[in-house]
Amino acid sequence: MTQSILQRVADTGPFPLFGPIETSVSRDGETYVAHHDGLIMASAFQPLFSVAQRRVVGHEALLRAHRTNGDLVSPLGVFGAVRSDAEAAHIDRLTRFLHVRNYLRLGRETEWLFLNVDMRSIASRENHSPFLGRLLRHFAINGNRLVIEILEAAVTDQARLAEAVAYFRSRGCLTAIDDFGSGHSNFDRLWSLSPEFVKLDRSLIEQSVWDRRVRNLLPHLVALLHEIGALVVMEGIETEDQGLIALDSGVDLMQGFLLGRPRPTATEGEPATLSALWDRFRAMSTPPRDPVAADAAFTAVIDRLKDGIPLSDACASFDRQAGILRAYLLDRDGRETVKPYIPASRAVCADPRYAPLAGASGTERFARPYFRRALEQPGRPQRTRPYFSVADATLCITLACAYEIGGATRVLCCDLASGDVLTAPRP
Fold first, then answer.
1. Is 1.10.3210.10 the CATH number for 291-417?
2. CATH class of the domain whose range is 3-285
3. The predicted structure's pLDDT at residue 20
4. Global pTM?
């Protein structure tokens, strides 16, 4: 039997905030469902896992709807069929109420609940305020239990978006920018909004499996998002390869069918899938050669340089072992001290499109992170992540190590061709 939402909802007391549109809520077993315009709407919860802690730290609430005849209706179908902005706001508020009520019954006291907000509610000030504050008071919960997900690219009024985010924060809630990396997403809005979470669009993880450029970009994108103070969520993890790439990218949270599908109840404990991903990631990330032996071979070049052997001769054996793209010696200012060593096979620019930048001699390298790390830790080889070398028109990694000779500091650098960290399939 249903009750009028204007009288009593879900046995928790009156909540007269949904306006004149006819709506009712009823109990279906242990869960609550909403009835509106021939639709029956329910909640499903998909887990979000902490990558480092390997456990569930929150759930995203998702709408599940069907008609009275049993036909399923997608969330997009529900909101796409509304007849007015007022009805869209009504359903938006109703579903948030429903999700919070169903989630609280699960007793997840120390986890976040991620709630999506329809953009029409953001665009209309009265539709998000004062609803959220009354919702929190109604259920007697702290705002920091809720993470409000916002599609920032869908809101054209920057001032209204900032106002809505400020309101959510004033109620203690956290905010998440959803689907970042799709459409017209930009960093300007991120810097101004400073969300606590950024959820990467699933297209990024899908493309990263077959596009090495996207795969190599992800760790840098994640690092940049960390610099604005946001935790990064990788959505859409559906395959093991995607999970491995997500681990390699350094994201904080993972979400997707591989780890847990949406369901009316919450996910418990640590999934065996995430543990297995970590085990495989460790195995695949181990260099094919012994890293200690590789570093020893690299530092052996330095020993030969200290003995007065020319750079080209000193690098010969290491070149045969590792395949050098180029080797160069720098002083404390990051400037080359001798002519760099370039194997004969690399003497011609690999790609004529980059011919104006092909001559690497005289390049200023003081600002390069690997150079400064080498100066800070003399005698300890430093290794970069793969990056694009303009001089060679290819991906490379750089080994760098500082040493003393004749009272002067020198830094030996060797650029090596980079292989894939993960051997994901190609189409």
1. no
2. alpha beta
3. 41
4. 0.74
